Amino acid sequence: MLSVSNLHAEVDGKAILKGLSLDVPAGEVHAIMGPNGAGKSTLSYVLTGRSGYDVTDGGATLDGEDLLALAPNERAAKGVFLSFQYPLEIPGVPALTFIRTALNAQRKARGEAEITAPAFLKLARTKAAELKIDFDMLKRALNVGFSGGEKKRMEIFQMAMLSPRFLILDETDSGLDIDALRIVADGVNALRSPERAMLIITHYQRLLDYIKPDRVHVLAGGRIVASGGPDLALELEREGYDKYARAA
Amino acid sequence: MAAVKQTVEHVASLEKYKHGFVTDIEQDFAPKGLNADIVRFISAKKDEPQWMLDWRLDAFERWLAMDEPDWAKVSFPKIDYQDSYYYAAPKTKTGPLSLDEVDPDILETYKKLGIPLREQEVLAGVVGSPKYAVDAVFDSVSVVTTFKKELAQVGVIFCSMSEAIREHPELVKRYLGTVVPVSDNYFACLNAAVFSDGSFVYVPPGVRCPMELSTYFRINAENSGQFERTLIIADKGAYVSYLEGCTAPMRDENQLHAAVVELIVLDDAEIKYSTVQNWYPGDPVTGKGGIYNFVTKRADCRGDRSKVSWTQVETGSSITWKYPSCILRGNESSGEFYSIAITNGRQQADTGTKMIHLGTNTRSRIISKGISAGRSSNTYRGLVSAHPKAKGARNFTQCDSLLIGKHCAAHTVPYIEARNGQAKFEHEATTTRLSDDQLFYAMQRGLSQEEAVQLLVNGFVKEVLQELPMEFAVEAQKLVAISLEGSVG
């Protein structure tokens, strides 16, 4: 699925990623943990093609295709989805309109027919119910006036609607109370499948109690400095990142 | 990001202004320049009665004594009024024709513009879709007006101004120049002297006009100005919805469009006036060419409980300078102004409204959405005033500006005058920048850069688009998208 090799990237001329390599095979969930400033969010932005994040060396492929050569929307159409750490507010555009426009843009890019209005609404009702989202909220302007927790839930709702193949969750647990966290985790777990892969970026181990990773990586100083099973997350929770931060 | 660059290049290569073609037909011109003989020439061409000619000559005399105003936040080289043609008409017989007699090239022009002039074309549209009648004005003359018979059955008069002067002189004499007096301002005065054509509407008491009325203005001839004059009267208890659309070819020189629109609304009547202005905006890089759109539009809510609603979508013109206004004379009369003004490239817009509260318990509402992109400048200028007698006057104003890119400007200049203690005015204003973060967010979900801009901008202007008649709202939405193509990246 995703293969990142020797990735170097800089922001405003400052090197952030310094030779990051990572493989996430289809069907697996990998967690990326690390101290503040290690480059976790930078990795998510480089993979999704945000401007201002310049790749200076190395590369990333999705199913063998050069991901970095594609525009952000082309990557989205290939099935790359980022659940934002800070979701943006879109005034005047109802959440449903936004998602339907995005879904149809993706389908068009893939050469598929647009989804019909009834089919879209049916899908939206089902997914909203699963994520315990009040349907009326979807008629409001996307994220405008939503609480932190509502915004995060809306990210997972968008994810469920767009049905991506490669999912990146950037600090999805921040701002969520324990009930919301469970709902969000259920939503994410529902998307686990042999055809999909996930990258979960998190600072704390808490989210991983609900979304069990297959592998855990420690990102420090712009590189993966350690990898292991789920136990590694527990160790980090106990002992902190100091050891790795120093090693980097 | 090679792909993004590619997208931007692709968009840049698109033809920005799709109405920029020229129709090659034989035309009749008045000699170049402006003097009393030209005024006589125009009047004679139109077979006008003496009183109309006298009115024009009086206006011309007054105009000679006036100076061009300079208070708007727009700049342009001095206009040489002698270097323009004041009358251009397709070379056929004058006056409205039956469709079969209209030059096929002109019909083709309107077809290219997507405007159905054949009634059966309208009727052949989607079943159940509302009909609308069209008055097509090509340079200085009205070439055809559709659905006249059907409208006449309910007593609605919809015809060209020239025809109204000949056929309904009593109505024209009673109302022309009563809302925008001859010497109201420099451009209105010039219009009074040389106005060529325009639309005339009269809706009799108690009649609800059975269809949308619309006029499409097309400037085609080179070096010519367009000076149309529109007069709409809604008699007691009447209702009419009217839409005007405007386009012009791409030309290197600036062309002056100085129109006057007068609305008269009597007791319990309502006029809804919508404009989709898409004149050629000039070259986006050099700013060369484009229309100077210096227009005076005013509604007089003479009757009690009368109502006027102005909705405008301003996307074209090199310079837009206009303030559709409401004189709220009748008690409990109300005025609304909904505006989307988009400037891109080197365009300049100074637009807004005046709400003049004279009667008691009058109400007004202003929603203005300005979008600036490229190196353009966009100014909202608005006056809300309450006369001492306008007890209980209320106004709500909301002015939002959206900036796209780093080289554009937005200004908001509100004037508020409350001359009695019982008026209640509210004013809200915001200025925001279309953020890269929002664009990236939308693109990450699958939208191309252009689609993302379009979606975000449509969200910004939604409140105003909702005010347009349904079939034009879709057009306007597309127009908004086209106007902003290539504004990011």
Helical proportion of chain A?
25-40%
> Which descriptor suits the 3D outline of chain A?
globular
Category by helix and strand content of chain B: alpha/beta
What share of the residues of chain B does DSSP label as strand, in percent? 25-35%
Oligomer: heterodimer
What is the helical fraction of chain B, as a range of percent? 10-25%
Strand content of chain A: 25-35%
Largest sheet of chain B: 11 strands, mixed
Number of helical segments with 4 or more residues of chain A: 8
- Major interchain interface with per-chain residue totals: A-B, 36 and 30 residues
Rg of chain A, alpha carbons: 18 Å
Give the N-terminus to C-terminus distance of chain A in angstroms: 27 Å
Structural category of chain A = alpha/beta
Q: State the end-to-end distance of chain B.
A: 11 Å
In spatial order, strands of the major sheet of chain A run: 6-7-8-3-9-10
The tally of beta strands of chain A, per DSSP, is 10
The helix count of chain B comes to: 12
Shape annotation of chain B:
globular
Number of E-state strands of chain B: 23
Low-confidence stretches of chain A: none
